[in-house]
Amino acid sequence: MRRYACPTCANEVHFRNTECVNCRSRLGYVPGRDQMFSTAAGDIRWHDGASAYKACANRQVIACNWLVQEGDAEGEEHCLSCSHTLVIPDLSSDDNRTHWAALEEAKRRLFYSIAKFRLGVGDLVTQPATALRFEFKADMPSPGGETKRVLTGHEHGLITINVAEADDPTREKYRKAMGEPYRTLIGHFRHEVGHYYWDHLVFDTPKLEPFRALFGDERDDYGEALGRHYDQGAPRGWETTHVSAYACAHSWEDFAETWAHYFHIVDGLETAGWYGLDGHAPDAGQHRTPGGWSDAGPYGAAEFKPLMDAWVPLTVAMNAMNRSIGLGDFYPFVLSDTIFAKLEFIHRLIHDRG
Which end of the chain is more exposed for a tag (fewer CB within 10 A), N or C? Predict the structure, then answer.
């Protein structure tokens, strides 16, 4: 994530801000420009020369600060990220409203990365069946008194996420039960879209055989593989070949976990660069280009090795920093040569699309 400044007063603002705390300007983010725009408190439009922008319809409901360009799409009231959410939970529950807001905030960060990688999310109007879509649902009591659980997952571009994942205590309970080193909303989003992009970038392409050589054969029965994983757990020594224990379940899950991890690395490196934590001085504050990279930053890195050369020492330093103030490791992973090869496959898959 890069740094942003209020266009009115140059005070540093954050990706989620709807208002500058210094000058009280109303802030709005334009994803197509990767810029934060500002307008006076009483104005309802943001302007950039001849272009005018309006607030996403979800601004007042969940504090979405993304903008919609007027004239972009007839009658479009929602921003790029919010428009890809097809189902939201029952908002008569305050908890559901809070959880939905947290989910959408994480999804905007996902869409930020997708835009930086120029991956595309499909067209909901002309080809909705192949577009990236989201449903956020809550568990519901059934007539018999039992609770009907909503399972987080992906199916043909439709990603369903249980809104309970946005509840910190619940998510931590799941994390401990699953023996995971970390469990985050952004991690869920990055993992699930990995399945979506596997369908579009690997399946039925020349990349399929190289994928099988690294990750395994996706034709292995998925249900049986998951059942075996939940019954027996990950094999001994899995840390040397997979980024997580869950990645051992099936080649599809290995790909999705590695895809999410690659997003973590690149976005983490961009953040580190903008704050001068990548070994380069922040020469122009929030307006700088992160040192050591092209204008596109780590998202535009043509080669994979420089990313790892920057990431590994950064994680060592951040782990030491966390320990110094009594926290658990910032990055509880050790990357082997096998995992590097899988991450490089993801890197090439994203960057070698012509």
Answer: C
Say if 190 falls within a structural domain.
no
Reply yes or no on whether the pLDDT at 176 is more than 90: no
Mean of pLDDT values over 20-48: 92
DSSP class per residue in 243-288: SSSGGGS-HHHHHHHHHHHHHHHHHHHHHHHHTT-SSS--TTGGGS
In a domain, 191, yes or no: no
Does the predicted TM-score (pTM) go above 0.85? yes
What's the rounded mean pLDDT across residues 65-70? 94
Paired with 29 in beta bridges are 36, 66
Q: How confident is the model at residue 286 (pLDDT cuts 50, 70, 90)?
A: very low
- Could you tell me if residue 207 is inside a domain? yes
Q: Classify residue 230: in a domain, yes or no.
A: yes
The domain tally of the chain equals 3
CA distance 247 to 259: 11
Per the structure, the complete domain to which residue 122 belongs is given by 84-183
By C-alpha distance, which of 302, 305, 307, 294 is closest to 352?
Answer: 302
Residue 149: per-residue pLDDT: 86
Three-state DSSP at 102 gives: helix
- In angstroms, the CA 178 to CA 192 distance is 17
